[in-house]
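Q: I'm a student working through a structural biology exercise. My instructor gave each of us a protein and asked us to get a predicted structure, then write a short paragraph describing it. Mine is NAD-dependent protein deacylase. I'm not confident about reading structure output yet, so if you can add a plain explanation after the C-alpha cells, that would really help. Here is the sequence I was given:
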Amino acid sequence: MRLPRRILTLHTAPGRRASSAPAGVVNFVPACSTTDLHSLELLQDFVTRARRLFVITGAGLSTESGIPDYRSEGVGLYARTDRRPMQHAEFVRSAKSRQRYWARNFVGWPQFSSHQPNSAHKALQRWEERGKLHWLVTQNVDALHSKAGQKGLTELHGCAHRVMCLGCGGISARAELQKRFLALNPDWSAQAGGVAPDGDVFIEDEQVLHFRVPPCEACGGILKPEVTFFGDSVNKATVQFVHDRLAESDAVLVVGSSLQVYSGYRFLLAAGDRKMPVAILNIGPTRADHLAELKVSGRCGEIPTDNRQHTDCLSGLAGSI
Ligand SMILES: [Zn+2]
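A: Happy to help. First, here is the predicted structure for NAD-dependent protein deacylase. I'll explain a few features afterward.
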C-alpha cells in the first residue's frame, strides 16, 4: 500500500554546522543546509522496509568524489561556464570536433580516471552484498560504482573508461587509447583548465590543431567514448533490461539525481505506474518529486546528525539493515 507522500523541508538548527567534507573534495557539491534527524529516520525506515531495492544514481553522487556535474545550482558546469557537452551528431559529423573532443579528453584523462568511489558508492555496494539492493542503475559514466565493486549494475549512459568503434562496434579500454595518444603525440601538451563530468577539459581551439587522433586498430573506423552523448538515445535493449529489473524490485530509491534527463526519469514514471514506493535523496528539486512518498534534501555522503559528530547517511542506513 502506498504511504502518504511526505516532503521534508530543510532546516538549519541553531548550533548545527552546514554540511562539510574533506578540503578539496566539496568544490562541486551544492550548498546545503543540514538534514534533520527526522528525515534520516524516515529514509532509514524506507530502506528497512524494502526487500529488493532498485536504486538510480546520478551526478550528485560523484560530486563528493570531486567530479563536477552539469546542473547543480551555482557550482554545476552550466552555472559556472558557457560550455555544453558534446552533441552526438556533431561528433559523428565533424572530424574537427572529434579532434577537439579527444584532445581535451586526453588532457583530462589522468585526473578523471584517478577519481575514487566515496562512502556513498561503498555503502550501496554493501547493500548489494547484504541482499538489500536488487539492481543499481547509474546515469554516471565515471566507473565509480564498478570501482566500488558493484555487480548488479547498469551504466545507463555508458562508461568513459571504454571506447567503441563506430565502424565495427568493437569495444576497447580507454586506458589503452591513452597509450596510443601518447605515442602519436609525443611533443603535444596543453594546460588543462578543469575536468567535466565526461572527462572533457577546457583548452583553446588553437591548442588542439596538431593533436593526432588514431582510428580503430581493427577496421580504421571512428573511435568514440562508449558514452551516450547528448542527442543520442539509450539502447532499447538496455532500457528493456532495466525495466525488467525494476519489475523484480519492490521499492525505488533515487540518490543524487535531479532526473532532468528522460532516459532516467522514465523509470520513475514506470515505478509510478506500478505504484511502487519511491524515495529521493538529492540536494534541490527533482523532476520526480511528485512521484515520491519521501523526499530528503541532503548530500549523499557525509550528513551531520548532531552538534558533535558527522555520520555518513547511506553508510549509517546500511548499518541498520
Ligand atoms: Zn573498428
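A: Here are two points you could use in your paragraph. The chain has two domains: 6-67+117-158+234-318, 77-114+160-227. The first helix runs from residue 37 to 49. It's a good idea to check both against the output above yourself.
Q: Great, thank you!
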